[in-house]
Amino acid sequence: MAKIAFLVDTDFEQVEYTQPRDLLQQKGHDTVLITTQDNKQVRGLNHTDPADHFTADLLIGDASVSDFDALVLPGGGANSDALRFKDSAQQFVKQFVDSGKPVAAICHAPWIFVDTKIADGKRLTAYETIAIDLKNAGANFEDKSVVVDGNIITSRQPDDIPDFADAIDSALKA
């Protein structure tokens, strides 16, 4: 059983957290919700409509890459935009990528790969509105349900979640 970190700020696309979490738990993995919000209170969105509130298990400052086997970044425009500008999130993502452990990002979440310079030379996918940002950062953008490049796994949107979860599970078993 692998231990998987899910990192959010707040106002994330709820289904991009709950559905991969549930699918990965069904496959026997343990999941932990980590946030950059000091009070650990985060909110999901259904597109732009407020959805459920969640209490994160850990603050990012209390999380260590060595405690986890993989990192998942749910999307949502507001959440992803906030994370990409937070030094703590950038450092955590960079440490995960450098560790060689799987790092999975869906929808707008691959935006952080632009600000961390991870996108350059990588094969990536994401929600169509950030494709140009990834291309401008040097990524080779592919319009597919899931793209795996080394330890980086990316998907485009909620319809891709089953393929996304399967790719994460496969990477953990490799």
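^ that was protein a. below is b, sequence first then the tokens
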Amino acid sequence: MKLKAKGFLFDLDGTLVDSLAVVERSWCLFGEKIGVSKEDIISYIHGKPALETLRHFLPHASEEEIMVHFRWLEKMESEDMEGVVALPGSVALLSRLNELSAPWAIVTSGTVPIAHGRRKVAGLPEPKHWVTFEKVSKGKPDPEPFLLGAQALSLNANECISFEDAPAGIHSALNAGSKVIAVHAPEGMPRRDEIDIVVSSLEQISVTGPDNNGYFELSVSKID
């Protein structure tokens, strides 16, 4: 399977880095504070902006109260990096894009302290462009994050391939008009017929280019 694009947009958590243990530790502690079960917390949180999640679990809280919880969570997640590692193939793929001078950005629901800390600990190359929580007015599944990511690369979203592992993020990228590669075939994956490729690992992906029109060719191989 092959796709062509002028730029590449990557979700961070669950796509480039494994931060699952940190995320679930922090949010489950939050759940304990407010009396929500671990199961209910974990079934909701992934791929969604923290403020949206807080408002979901605290529908009657004031914005001031929400922000207190938000800053508490941000501190917890930015200081706890135990178990954060690069997912297989992520460092090699990003390094290859840099070798080819291919435009790419990280598009994450995380805040700057959390996202930058995890990238560094995981040993990922530093992107020239970030879209973090601070830059968006509407988070995933709204298309704004991936529209901003494409804009940062001076491209249209339909000229980009987006990599995502969570249903909310897949919705966001599809709604932006981007081509989409779903990583790890997430449970509840939306709009399967609209997703271009599903991979189990970024190790399956190779990139060549650019051609005379500025397009890079992405190929996907099967891993036995």
